[in-house]
Amino acid sequence: MLEKREFYINGQWVAPAKANDYEVIDPSTEEACAVISLGDQADTDAAVAAAKAAFADWAFVDKSEKMALLHKLLEVYNDRQEEMAQAMSMEMGAPISMSRVNQVGAGSWHLEGFIKAFDKMSFERDFTGTEKTLLEPIGVCALITPWNWPMNQVVLKAVPAIAVGCTTVLKPSEIAPLSGSLFAEFMDEAGFPKGVFNMVNGDGAGVGSQLSAHPDVDMVSFTGSSRAGKLISKSAADTLKRVSLELGGKGANLVFADAGEKGVEYGASRCFRNSGQSCNAPTRMLVESSFYDEAVEIATRVANETHVGPASEEGQHIGPVVSKAQFDKIQGLIEVGMGEGRLTAGGLGRPDGLNRGYYVKPTVIADVTNDMTIAREEVFGPVLAIMKFDTIDEAIAIANDTDYGLTNYIQTPDDEKRHYAARRLRSGMVETNGKGFAQGSPFGGYKQSGNGREGGLYGLEEFLEVKAVSGWTS
Question: Are residues 141 and 281 in the same domain?
Fold first, then answer.
């Protein structure tokens, strides 16, 4: 079993101020695979103090020096990507093939995108002939990241914050902390100055709350549940620090009859990807009435053909969900959904042949209406709810009738319908016809899906203050 009790503070690996062991569970086996320590106030204070001390110099380090370090980080990341793939697969259950390609690849892809955006970025803008607008780093940033896409979220926060001159304290999820510790090793190997990046393990009630309320933290960037995002916002309010939130979702996928079989197949498989543990998953499939019965049959087939198995196995299957708590929550919502709608695939319990591990059957519930629990609550598992619509305006109204607003989807070859719907859907992102977003595209949502944007230029600007200076002479 791996022992990862130390924290990375001020350029060194240090023991926790007080021992507080916490076992990391491999969701494929339900057995402990590692032990970490959960930090307390003394550890949080030490990390914040290191970041605060480093900020005065790091904020003014030349852009070319920062760029060189980012390139070195990318080199280290790529050289050690197999270690990262194995860590994420073990800690959160992504099948190893997916972990290598998608989980690891998300981190390197975003890092490359930030390097390109940072290279083009100017921190001084002429406002008038004698006035400048300066973009400056906000200060010490607390970065609180989730377990479902570990490197995707660590890179989306740590890299832009550090690039623009902020200093950071990372608290990765205690459920999946091994990748965060490994990233700290990458930062150390890349040669970032001490105090610029710090990492403390802990849970939300402990280190997470301490960082949110800390008077020397200038900004909190958090990805996780909407419930936790509200608590962080309340905790941060006393010090009026900036809070950037990327929260939950209940994405609607508008499937028009002219989308055909491929539109349904894509939507269902996209819902089940990563065992349904993605905030931007299209978990509500809205189907045009004339195509509804056929679409239900297609989605049911996709679910039945989706293989579930251990994360250690090669292949294109889906793995377990991350924890017993998550498994139990999903089972409860499936049971509720079965009582509300019509179960056509999956259901309660583990898939056949799997009697240990947090495995969930890919599940389809049809004949759903938007007032049902299964249509309103974020399941965060491989569960698809299908409902019908008659007109495009009805589909848009159903899609928008939710507390969330992260990503919606449209499937139709009709450009006029796609453009009409895309403009009226209330979400930070609208993906159409399976076309993924470009590198550096702004990721974020409306309503209870959050209030920040991550990726590329938008992600860099998230960590900046705006200063107006008059009387500037060339």
Answer: no
